[in-house]
Please model this.
Amino acid sequence: EIVMTQSPATLSVSPGERATLSCRASQSVNSNLAWYQLKPGQAPRLLIYGASTRATDIPARFSGSGSGTEFTLTISSLQSEDFALYYCQQYNNWPRTFGQGTKVEIK
Amino acid sequence: EVQLVESGGGLVQPGGSLRLSCAASGFTFSNYWMTWVRQAPGKGLEWVANIKQDGSERYYVDSVKGRFTISRDNIKNSLYLQMNSLRAEDTAVYYCARGGQQLVHWGQGTLVTVSS
Model:
């Protein structure tokens, strides 16, 4: 099983600032990496797939990069609605696996 | 509009069984892999099981192998998760989702609580 490790566990950021979240895979997942946003009481929302492709209707302030074992999700200018939990997920191997999440909170 | 509606959650004693259902609409169900994902209280997301379009391939996370069975009915446009020998650590919100790679569409989830 591929282990996905996210860092940091919590990121404190002021509105309007940039947030950079990291995700590392225990072995290469090529570009088969997705990012999700999760808010309390809501279903997860796909942000990025293929490591860098924004999903439908996702604002341009969200961007993904990386390949192999190192990945980054960048939120260029945090809006109030972006304070949430973020998860990476690999789909290169079975079983699919998620990272443990990064909480983006208001500084 | 794609809709996924889970049902069947509830309170069950350790060692008990429960069957979750997911009713799909707004797309051709038989064309897609389907997935169950769960989130335990205060924990992260965990991929539970996948099933191929025709049911010929199924994959499970190790922690549920031998206890959970994923299945589907392409006539009824429904996905199922039969959960046996339930443990306290299976307590979670269970989501069904469309796809087997990135998951674009999710249901709202159904809560399963395993407790005596």
Notes: The two ends of chain A are 35 Å apart (CA to CA).
